[in-house]
Design brief:
The protein has 225 residues and is mainly α. Helix content is 68%, strand content 0%. The longest helix is centred in the middle third of the chain and has 33 residues, at 88-120. The radius of gyration is 19 Å and the shape is globular.
Length: 225
């Protein structure tokens, strides 16, 4: 139980920030393109209460914390009305890309903060290890979410970015794949919580880029990379 509580405490801040900023970024970009649907429904906010999903934000992350060190999940998608966009195709692309982009930026910022702690504080500082672990998870989960959402599988953000370039029958057939996506997600989540590395094609580049950024920032700030 102590291990589970510690795991939750170290991963929850980064996880919540990652999924909340992801959805808020979608809402912000949609509003910029003329669709104020999400804003009117109170989703243009960083308040986690406005974005939580009982299954994706509570149950699945708890299951991950209890069965492995991988806490994964999602927030409730913000409502988008593409017909309100000033420019439909550009709106669909950039509103879809806004979520993953926000995670890439958050991951980079977390890497920078790790470098600040490593180079500007002492390892004997009582909160040194705690903050390093929390920020390290923030880096990792943000890149995982970014790369995962960029997969061109409907209804992930990557598929919507692709769909902005499609038309007619091709678009219809592409979006029809979405009916199989929930089954794929459930299988992937269950396998991941059991320690099977089915997401290795996402986790591996996420770890490589995370380490490259962290050590790069540390080196730029005069630390030992």
């Amino acid at each position: 139980m102590n291990t589970i509580i510690l795991n939750i405490a170290q991963t929850l801040p980064g996880f919540l920030l990652a999924i909340v900023v992801h959805e808020a970024a979608h809402a912000w970009m949609a509003n910029k393109f003329g669709d104020n649907t999400a804003k009117n429904e109170g989703r243009l906010t960083l308040n986690p209460a406005a974005h939580y999903d009982m299954f994706g934000t509570v149950l699945i992350p708890l299951l991950g914390a209890m069965t492995s060190s991988m806490v994964i999940g999602w927030a409730r998608p913000v409502p988008i009305e593409p017909r309100k966009f000033k420019n439909y195709r550009s709106g669909v692309f950039w509103v879809s890309f806004a979520g993953p982009l926000s995670n890439l930026l958050l991951g980079t910022l977390s890497s920078f903060l790790i470098a600040v702690i490593v180079t500007q504080t002492s390892p004997t500082w009582e909160y040194y290890t705690i903050f390093i672990r929390m920020l390290s998870y923030s880096v990792f989960i943000n890149f995982i979410l970014a790369f995962f959402n960029l997969i061109p599988l409907p209804p992930l953000d990557g598929s919507k970015m692709v769909s902005s370039f499609l038309r007619g029958t091709t678009l219809y057939k592409y979006e029809s794949i979405a009916r199989y996506t929930p089954i794929i997600f459930i299988v992937v989540i269950l396998l991941s919580t059991q320690g099977l590395h089915v997401l290795g094609f996402i986790q591996t580049p996420a770890r490589i880029i995370s380490n490259w950024l962290m050590f790069g920032f540390i080196g730029l700030m005069g630390g030992v990379a």
